[in-house]
Design a protein that fits this description.
The structure is a single chain. 36% of the residues lie in helices and 16% in strands. It has a 3-stranded antiparallel beta sheet with strand order 3-9-8, covered by helices on one side. It has a domain of 156 residues: Topoisomerase I, Chain A, domain 4. The protein has 15 helices and 17 strands. By secondary structure, the protein is of the alpha+beta class.
């Protein structure tokens, strides 16, 4: 049985700049040509942070070291590529550790435990690694295949899904390794999800893969005992609970003990069976975890009165709707609030010092996994990508104020339409649609506003240093937002029948409230004026309302 060398075998799928199709690259080619590559093509969005954290970033950082300060970071970033000296260092590093990058090495297979087996020598299908496939209690997301169907993986596919499992695997009961002293009755319990499963992952993306890697490297010194998994002793079936020693350890955290079982087939080498057991558990998520924003909640037991938690992404909610969490570089004292990721905060400082231009085309990917039934099954994969003006990452700028206001306005417009719907339903004698049941019409507003907000973010990037241009863009956005909201409102009003004109009297706490069509429209217009002050002023400045426009 031959091995599979990840250093020089083509298993990554980056897309060359200016091209629409990806092509297979080896790890060495991907890093040395990173300035010529756009982004990684992946089987599922959650593979992107897995590949960046488990392989690309640790190789670069361990081979070249972290930038010690912002000046060094700026100098390396300004090169636009790894210099010839840096490329030689990366290549020499890969050659030095080649033996640990063999996917099927009999003694130390990459990111696996050699000879891993259960007491009963049980193996399972490779669907266990693939989050989008049916396996055990896991529901299929995008495939109709069942657990009994074989899922042969090429070595390249197996390598990508292996690293994905180390980051995102489900929680729950796992098979017990034969040499795991903590396994009971052939099982281990209390397993948590892979380390990224607890996060709302935030990944800054640049114009090239080289820039993306630089944007994801925190500035600072590296601890002497901080090593990636391939520079540590080969793994056995035993595992431990401990703290991460540093970024390299955290990025290459081995949350599972896995063994890929290759076999020669008529189509070549394939992985059809695996062994997957419990792996190391993080004793605590470090505060220096770079790829998540944070929420602060009240906690009387904490010395500070609050508890810092990674901020999870919400299903069905566009990334721009959580804009403030991405922009607040540091929580204010005494505030529950939020705090952005360490990497975005670092970019704000770099932009303030001129290391990044104000109009740098930063994209931010937000990635997450939705688990169900005690986190033992995958229900959904969350992904979004938004253009983020770097100037907005500093709270003292007009850009920050504008971005936060626009996202708040979008939410207020959705609330206004939901309020109109509730008043109309009360006027006809029905109850409002519950906030947690059914689809409320405000969601149609947010859906209609989504492309407008994304276009606005791109426009802000080019006008962030011009307050007048920023204000003109904001005014134009309000005008368009008004018409999108008006369109949804008119569809609601078109459903009104004669009963809404007469209305209904509702008694609550000895007070009578009258709900009718006229008052519903009036309340809605008031909320529009409050949410869109620039649009409201433009209406007041005109001698007559435009045809079809709601009176201001």
């Amino acid at each position: 049985m031959s091995g599979y060398d990840l250093i020089d075998s083509p298993w990554l799928l980056p897309r060359p700049c200016g091209e629409t199709a990806q092509k297979p690259y080896s790890l060495r080619e991907t890093l040395l040509q990173a300035h010529l590559l756009d982004a990684l093509e992946v089987d599922v969005p959650t593979q992107t942070p897995a590949l960046i954290r488990q392989v690309l970033l640790p190789v670069v950082v361990d081979a070249l070291g972290r930038p010690s300060d912002r000046k060094e970071w700026a100098r390396r970033f300004a090169n636009g590529r790894f210099t010839d000296i840096e490329q030689k260092a990366i290549s020499a590093y890969l050659d030095e550790h080649r033996s640990r990058f063999d996917l099927f090495d009999p003694e130390a297979p990459f990111a696996q435990a050699a000879g891993l087996h259960t007491a009963k020598q049980e193996t399972k299908g490779t669907a266990l690694l693939v989050a989008t496939q049916a396996s055990g209690n896991n529901v299929p997301l995008f495939s109709s295949r069942t657990e009994g169907d074989p899922l042969p993986l090429t070595p390249a596919e197996a390598a990508r899904w292996l690293l994905h499992a180390q980051c995102w695997d489900t929680a729950g009961i796992k098979s017990g390794a034969a040499d795991d002293g903590m396994a009971k009755a052939g099982k281990t319990t209390g397993n948590v999800t892979g380390p990224l499963g607890a996060l709302g992952v935030v990944v800054p993306m640049g114009r090239t893969l080289f820039e993306t890697l630089m944007l994801n490297i925190p500035i600072g010194t590296q601890a002497a005992d901080d090593l990636p998994q391939w520079r540590r002793a080969p793994m056995s079936g035993q595992w431990t609970t401990r703290h991460a020693t540093g970024l390299l350890d955290l990025w290459t955290w081995q949350a599972r003990r896995i063994r890929l079982i290759p076999e020669d087939t008529e189509h070549g080498l394939r992985v059809c069976r695996v062994v997957l057991c419990a792996g190391d558990r993080l004793q605590a998520l470090p505060e220096w975890e770079p790829h998540t924003a944070w929420s602060f909640v009240k906690d009387p037991k904490s010395p500070t009165g609050t508890q810092r938690r990674p901020r999870r992404h919400l299903p069905g909610k566009a990334a721009w709707r959580g804009m403030e969490a991405l922009l607040v570089a540091e929580r204010q004292d005494g505030d529950d609030g939020t705090e952005t990721s360490r990497l975005l905060s670092q970019l704000a400082d770099l932009q303030a010092e001129g290391a990044l231009p104000f109009d740098y085309p930063l994209q931010v990917q937000t990635i997450g996994m939705v688990y169900g039934t005690q986190s033992a099954v995958v229900e959904d994969v969350l992904f979004d990508s938004i253009p983020l003006p770097i100037a907005g990452l500093r709270t003292e700028t007009d850009t920050y104020t504008t971005l936060v206001e626009v996202t708040e306005q979008a939410e207020d417009l959705a609330k206004a339409v939901n309020g109109l719907s509730a008043d109309l339903r009360r006027a006809r004698g029905a109850d409002p649609i519950p906030w947690n049941k059914g689809q409320r019409p405000g969601e149609f507003v947010l859906h209609a506003l989504d492309p407008l907000v994304r276009r606005f973010l791109v426009g802000v990037r080019t006008s962030a240093d011009d307050p007048d241009q920023l204000e003109r863009g904001h005014t134009a956005w309000e005008q368009l937002a008004y018409w999108k909201t008006q369109d949804v409102a008119e569809r609601l009003l078109a459903t009104a029948t004669g009963s809404e004109f007469a209305g209904r009297v509702v008694k609550k706490d000895k007070t009578e409230y009258v709900y009718r069509l006229a008052s519903a429209e009036q309340n809605f217009r008031q909320q529009l004026r409050a949410a869109l002050p620039r649009w409201a002023q433009s209406v007041r400045d005109r001698p007559d309302d435009e045809p079809g426009e709601l009176s201001a």
